[in-house]
Amino acid sequence: QANMKFTSTKRSKFQDVLTIVLVGYLASKTKLDYRQSLVKLVDSIYWGLYWLEDIGRYNQHARYMGGNWDPISLQLDDHQVQVSGSLPLDLFGGMFVRMGTNPKCWPPTGVHHAFNGEAMMHRISIKDGNTLEYSNNYVEDFAGDTNAFKNETCQGSSCNIPSYSYGDLDKGGFALARVLLVKLRNKILGVKTPSQERSQPGSTSLITHANKTYTASEIVLPYEVDLGRHEVKGKGFSTFDGLLSNQTHGPQEGVMSAHPRTDPRTGELLFFATNHGAGSVPIVNFGNLMADGTPKKYIQIPVPSPAAAFYHDMFLTENYAIFFHSSLKKDFRRLAKGETLTFFDKTSNLGFGVLPRNASSADDLIWIDAPAPGHIWHTVGAKEEGNTLTLYAPKFSNYSDDVKIHLPSEEPSFLTKFVLNLETRECTEEIIFDEVVERPTVHPDVLSPAYVYLRSEGLQSTEMGRTIVKFNLNTEQTEGSIDCGVYCTFGESLFIPKSRGTSEDDGYLVDIPYFPDLHSSKFMVWDAKQMVEKPLATADLPQRVPYGAHGKWLESSFFQ
């Protein structure tokens, strides 16, 4: 309640809450044992704060409820779907995987956000030119992993009990009080509260490396799964053979970004990430695995405080690994004042940490500030020419403190070229495309791409977007676009190269667009080189696929 001024109406509501709490406690004390009485007292306070903040109404107006934001309840296995058109021969035997959140408890008991919910994997397996199979499953905790979080808030009828998630911290208000109440409740009941890095399997992306498969989100350890054609089995959290354990600074264990990079020449996996959990300090961690999965390098890099809220993606060149230090910050001290956990600092310019890939310590880092504040979610790519690095990414010049990602109210992002001089440590930036774009996809086997495919929202922000634009980074010109129609919304297209492609752009685009008029989803495939608007193949999926995070293509050889 620090620094909050109550109007007479709010003061009256607060008094009502205290009355409800007192009556509830006195009634419970005569009927229940001591532990149950304490739990009921904690619950009464929690629900009083919930009511005082009118969270139910807030959720309805926050735009993450309704339409394609709502979760689905069915888990389907190998549901056969007929295809209109013809699926390309290159895709036969492969699988498209879309990761995302899908809350088990609905409606939510806390503030809802796009980041909230358990990890769900949607799998589309290509059988032949006319048939595919659709499956979807939660990524469940491995029963043998004693460190995994068994979430008692999502066990059938017990969903409607106090809980908290990113959305609560994102809103501020009484969030800190409600978080402490949930932790107190768990302590009374003897429920283990896990460390943040082991809170749940990642829901943002799917990572494959050295014959192993992981789900990932930047706040948790990578979670290994056994992914087959017909099922997904959890195997447990991974520290990459100790690479992410026993950190020198900050929490004991590290985490991994949702967007590591694989060097197509060497097969190495590289990533930047930071653990914002208990005991965190302003440090970004750089990790490097050999092609066979052997840990190669782990460097902890101090960054200005407060740290950026997200280190979601990175750039990679032949000799450098680069992270971006966003103007969107995270400071837990703000929660004590009823403010949002994250905030956009207009006095702090966007920065880049350039780490030589042969670095032995953080002392080798080259720090370069951009000329203006900004935030980046996803990168396109980078190229290296002598002492000059050219980076490409959709950049937000401003961002909401409460992170309105993917909503019409989200600030616009434009494709931006950053030129970094490693000698003078100077940076210039230039917008090279005037449409609002995000969710870039490029050829996965090209280190410095010439082509990028971007989801466009047009000249102003909308919910997701209806157009995919093909952009040539060398000429800085568009080379075609695909519009899925007025009653259609793209999620995130993914570029899949042809097995015998003759150029970098020779391949396919796949996506699962949402059709609001029918409240349904389709799997669609286009020719990425020709960019003809009519899809090569379309399949009506047996159920709607909610807006998710990122997709992954698995070749038929993956399942051999």
Walk me through this protein's architecture.
This protein has 560 residues and is mainly beta. It has helices at 8-29, 34-53, 55-61, 166-171, 175-189; strands at residues 79-82, 84-85, 95-101, 119-126, 131-138, 205-209, 212-216, 223-227, 232-237, 261-262, 269-273, 283-289, 295-302, 315-316, 320-325, 328-330, 342-344, 351-356, 366-369, 381-385, 388-396, 413-421, 426-441, 451-456, 467-472, 477-483, 494-497, 507-511, 514-515, 520-527, 537-540, 551-554. Helix 1 runs antiparallel to helix 2 (34-53) and helix 2 (34-53) runs antiparallel to helix 5. The longest helix is centred in the N-terminal third of the chain and has 22 residues, at 8-29. The chain is globular. The N and C termini lie far apart (58 Å).
Give a topology summary:
Elements: H1 8-29, H2 34-53, H3 55-61, E1 79-82, E2 84-85, E3 95-101, E4 119-126, E5 131-138, H4 166-171, H5 175-189, E6 205-209, E7 212-216, E8 223-227, E9 232-237, E10 261-262, E11 269-273, E12 283-289, E13 295-302, E14 315-316, E15 320-325, E16 328-330, E17 342-344, E18 351-356, E19 366-369, E20 381-385, E21 388-396, E22 413-421, E23 426-441, E24 451-456, E25 467-472, E26 477-483, E27 494-497, E28 507-511, E29 514-515, E30 520-527, E31 537-540, E32 551-554
Antiparallel strand pairs: 1-5, 2-31, 3-4, 3-32, 4-5, 6-7, 7-8, 8-9, 10-11, 11-12, 12-13, 14-15, 15-18, 16-17, 18-19, 20-21, 21-22, 22-23, 23-24, 24-25, 25-26, 27-28, 28-30, 29-30, 30-31
Helix pairs in contact: 1-2, 2-5
